[in-house]
Write a structure and sequence with these properties.
The chain is of the alpha+beta class. Helix content is about 50%, strand content about 15%. The protein has two domains: about 70 residues, Orthogonal Bundle (Arc Repressor Mutant, subunit A); about 130 residues, Muramoyl-pentapeptide Carboxypeptidase, domain 2. The chain starts with 11 loop residues before the first helix and ends in a 5-residue tail after the last strand.
Length: about 220
């Protein structure tokens, strides 16, 4: 039996466990039980099955006195169950383009993709206010496999956040850094905002994190 199980094909509790571990990095049985609103026994049963499949691993964690508790996290195989929209074929194609035509051709391909996404996003965001745009962009990115969420703040001058817990294009971004810069440029254009990338999965961070500020209007 193939151990690489798509989380979409999992029953809901198992899929949710994979999702929560992807976001949190690691979690204990008690934490997962509370987040999922399931009994500890029920969660433990799902975790045992995911461990048997090689998707989840556990380590002992001791905090202060008392018995150690188990902390659960995704294995390298478990991390691969999340969507990677382009993968090896796209990376090979860009490598080939760079070898035969040059770096500028890779940039042109990525920007052509950016233009398509801009048209899609802009159509859906153009009539929304700034905070709603950030929220809707996060929803769209989540649908595309980025496991995205937004955190919007009402305090004046405080940046909104776009958090992406999965990077479907990480195989591309690790070899062709232009993809990250073009993505940031896309966000700035579609949101009419200043965007700062503070964390990048392609640089080894566990998350892609963007600080977003509405552009000031010059009087």
């Amino acid at each position: 039996m193939d151990d690489k199980v798509d989380p979409v094909s999992q029953s809901d509790p198992k899929r949710k466990i994979l999702y929560l571990l992807k976001i949190s990095g690691k979690a204990g049985l008690e934490d997962l039980s509370k987040m999922m609103k399931l009994s500890r026994m029920g969660v433990h049963k799902h975790l045992a099955d995911l461990q048997d499949r090689g998707l989840v691993e556990s380590t002992e964690f001791r905090k202060g006195v008392g018995r150690p508790v188990m902390q659960y996290s995704l294995t390298s195989t478990g991390k691969l169950t999340f969507p990677k929209a382009y993968g090896q074929i796209a990376t090979f194609a860009l490598d080939y383009i760079e070898k035969k035509i040059g770096k500028s051709a890779v940039d042109a391909v990525l920007r052509e993709r950016q233009a398509e996404l801009y048209d899609k996003y802009n159509t859906l965001l153009k009539d929304l206010d700034f905070s709603q745009k950030v929220i809707e962009l996060a929803r769209l990115r989540d649908e595309e496999g980025y496991m995205a969420e937004s955190k919007c703040f009402d305090k004046k001058g405080e940046p909104h956040l776009l958090l992406e817990y999965n990077c479907p294009i990480i195989m591309i971004a690790e070899k062709h850094w232009e993809a990250c810069f073009i993505e940031k440029d896309l966000f700035e254009k579609v949101l009419d905002a200043d965007v700062e990338t503070t964390h990048r999965a392609a640089r080894g961070d566990s998350i892609c994190r963007f600080q977003i500020k509405k552009k000031k209007i010059d009087l």
